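User: Structure with tryptophan, C-alpha cells only please.
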Amino acid sequence: MADTATPNVIRRADYAPPAFLIDTVALEFDLVPERTVVRNTMRVRRNPDASHASNLELMGEQLEFVSATIDGAPFDNAHAHEHGLTLSNVPDHFELTITSICNPAENTTLSGLYVSGGNFFTQCEAEGFRRITYFLDRPDVMATFTVTLRASKADYPVLLSNGNLLEEGDLPDGRHFARWEDPFRKPSYLFALVAGKLVALEERVKSGSGKEKLLQVWVEPHDLDKTRHAMDSLINSIRWDEARFGLELDLDRFMIVAVSDFNMGAMENKGLNIFNTKYVLANPETATDTDFANIEAVVGHEYFHNWTGNRVTCRDWFQLSLKEGLTVFRDQEFSADMAGGATDEAARATKRIEDVRVLRQMQFAEDAGPMAHPVRPESYVEINNFYTMTVYEKGSEVVRMYQTLFGRDGFRKGMDLYFKRHDGQAVTCDDFRHALADANGRDLAQFERWYSQAGTPRVSVRTRYDAAQQRYSVTLAQGYGDAAPAARETQKGPLLIPFAIGLIGKDGSDLSLQLEGETRASDSTTRVLDFTQTEQTFTFVNVAQEPLPSLLRNFSAPVIVEYDYSADQLAFLLAHDSDPFNRWEAGQRLATRELLTLAGRAATGVPLQLDDSVVAAFARVLTDETLSPSFRELALMLPSEAYLAEQMAESNPAAVHAARQFVRKRLANALRKDWLAVYEKHRTPGAYEATPEASGHRALKNLALSYLAELDDPAEAVRLASAQYDAANNMTDRSAALSALLNAAAANGGSIEAQQALDDFYRRFEKEPLVIDKWFALQATQRGSAQRPVIEIVRKLMAHPAFNLKNPNRARSLIFSFCAANPAQFHAEDGSGYAFWADQVIALDAINPQVAARLARSLELWRRFTPTLRDGMRAALEKVASQVKSRDVREIVEKALA
Ligand code: TRP
Ligand code: ZN
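Assistant:
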C-alpha cells in the first residue's frame, strides 16, 4: 500500500497494550440537541501488562472540554487538544470525572451522538465513542457501563441504553430520567443510547434454560405496522443460536431500534441493536422478497454478534474479521437453515449461490484493485474504510473453510473451545484459528496465510485418464496470476485449500471415489482434497470410465478455478451435476464465456451472433419442471455487467452492455413462448405469502417478465407489466413491473405506461421513505438510451424535493445506484458520469466522510478500463484528490492514484 504517500498510517505490527485500563464507566447525559452535556466518571488504573506512562492520553473529537476531577478534586493537569485530552502525571489508580459538551444537532457524520428525525441516536463503531466523551476508545479496553439519561419528557418520552433498566422517573421542569446498567464488560464501540418519540412491538419469549426475555422492536409510531417480520426474525435467531451453537441470550431484555439516517446496515450494540430502517421495516406492500430476506439476515447477523463480537471481541481493529467474517458466516448458515433446514441441499444452494455471486462480483473486484488487503489488514489510514467485502465476505469464506475441513461437528467443537478460552476477552484471529486447530487436533499453521495474503487465488486444473490402469489423475496448481500490486506484496506461499471434487459418469451420475492408497471407495461421492502445495496431483483409482470432473463443489474455497471445459461439457454439467451449486456454476461459465466473446466482438464492431446450442441449454433449464423456481431464476440470470467487464483484459462497459443485451434479446425472442408460459404458470394469486416457495415463484415469473420486456415488439410485455403493476398486492411484483416498463420503454425514449406507473408509484408511497428510495433507484439504474441518457434523469432527480444528500439511504438510492449499478450509463464516453461523481464525492465529503468514501470507491478500478475511460476517470480522481478534506476519502483516492 502507498503508505509513504499517506500520513498517519496505523500498522498492525505497532500494536501495544494500553497503558491504562478503565474498569467502570458511569455516564450522565443531559440531552439537548445543540448542546448535550456529558459527565463521565471512570475507575482508571495502570495496566500491569503495559510499559509505564506518566500521562493518560484519552481520545476525544469535536468535544468542548469543561472540567476534569480526580478522586473528587479538580485536576489542573488536563490539556484538551484536537485529538483528545492529555492528563499529566496521574496516580496509579483513581476515579476520574470528565465533563464535556457536544452538538448532536449539527452532527451530519452520523458517527457519535446525533439527531435524526428529532430523536437522539448513537453510532460508536469503530471510533465514534470519542465524539461523545473522552475515553480510551479502543476495543481492548473493556468496562462495565452505567448510563443515566435526562431529557425533556414531552420531546423524548423514551430513553434507552444498553443492558437492564434500573430506574426511571420525573425531574423538575418537564424533564425525566432513566438509568441503565449493562452487567457485561464491553469496549466503548458497543455503547449506545436512543432517546425520542418511539413505540415498540414487544414479545416475551423463554430462552433455552427457561428464563423469560423481553424483546422489543422500537420504531416511529407510523411504522409499527412494519415490525412483525423483524420480530419474527429475532425470535428465529435466538432459537437458531441455541440449537446450532448452544449459545443463549445473556440479557433479560433485547432491543432493536430503527433509524432512517444511518451509515451502514445495522450495529450490534450490547442489548440495544440500532438498525437502518431498511433492515427492519417491512410489510408486503412496501418491501420486496429480497428486503424480507435481507432483514432476516441482518437481524440474525446483529443478534449473533452478541456472542461473536460482544462476549468475545477484537483486540484491535486489524482483527475486525474475527467478529465480522465469523458473524457473516453465522448469518449465512442461519438463512440457509431457515430456507432449507440442514438437509434440503437444493434450498440451501440457493442461498449459497446468492452469497457467492456477491463475493465474486464485489470482493474479487476489491482484491484486484488498489484497496486489495488481506482478511486481516496490515495497515490502514481510516478504519472505517476497512469494513470491506474482504473483511466480511472473504472473511466468512475463510471461516466456512474450517467447517468444510472439520465438518459441522468439528466446527462446533472449535467454537465451544473458543468460547471456553476467550469469553469476556478481546482477542485475535490467531486465537480463533488456534481454538479450531486444537479442538480438532490439527496443525493449521499454513492456514494462517488466508488471513495474511491478499488477492484472489487461482487454481488451474489438469486431468488425465488412463483407461488401461483405470486411473484418473487431477493435478491442481495454485497461484495468484498477475495480482494487483497491493495484493502482490502480501503473497508468500501456497495456501491450504479445501478443494471439493466429484467425478461424473457418462450417464450423469456420480462415480464412487477411491484415492490411490485407500483400501476402498468412500461413502460420499464428493471428496474434499487437502490441497496444500503449489502443485499437487491426486489420483483416483478404479475409475472404469473417463469421468467429467465437478470442481470446487459448493464453492469450497474462495478461489478462481481454471479448467478447459468444452461448451458441451458445461451443458452436460448444467443438466446433470448432483451438486446444485456446480449446476448453476456450469451455466454461468457457459454464459460468461459466450458473453465475453461477444463483448470482444462488440468492442471492435464485429456483428454479434449466438450459437443455438447456448439457447438450447438455457431453454432446457427454463422448461425443467424438476428444478425449483428459485434455482431456475438464478440459473437464467446472466452474469452482471460489472462482473463481465471485470473479466475483460480492458473493461469496456459499453461493449459488455451491448453483448449482454444482445443475448437477452436473443433469449427473449427465441424462447418467447416458454417465457410466456413460465410467466403464467408462476403467478401467485391470492394473499401474499413470504415463504421461500412463494418468493421463488415470484422471482422466476418476474425474470420472465424482464426477458419479455426485451422482445423486439414489447407490446405484449407492456400489457402484462401494466396489468401486473395495477393488480399487485405486494412490492416485489409492483417494482418488478415498474422496472420492466422502464426498460421496455428505453428503446423508444420513454413510454406513457412507464411514466404513468412512475407517477403513480410516487403518489402511492410518498409517505414511505424506503419505497421512495426504490423510486429513485429504479430510475437511476434504468437502461436509458441515446435519446435519453440516464445522467440527465439523475441530474433532474437531484433537484427533486424528496432528494436529500444528508440522508445516506437517499444518497445511495440515486447517486450510488447510478455510479455503481448502472455501468453502461455511468461510463459514458463523454465523461459526464465521472464529472457528476466528482461533484457528489466532494459535496458528501463535507457532510459525511464515511458515505463519501464509499462513493469514492466506485472509480478505484480505473486503470483496468479502456484508454478513453481511463483518462476521464483519472481526471475526476485528481479533481477529488485536490479538494477533499476528510481522511476517509483521501485514503481512497490517494491509493487509487498511487
Ligand atoms: N458492526 C456492524 C456490523 O457489521 C457494522 C458497522 C461498523 C457499522 N461500523 C458501522 C454500522 C458504522 C453503522 C455505522 O454489524
Ligand atoms: Zn457485523
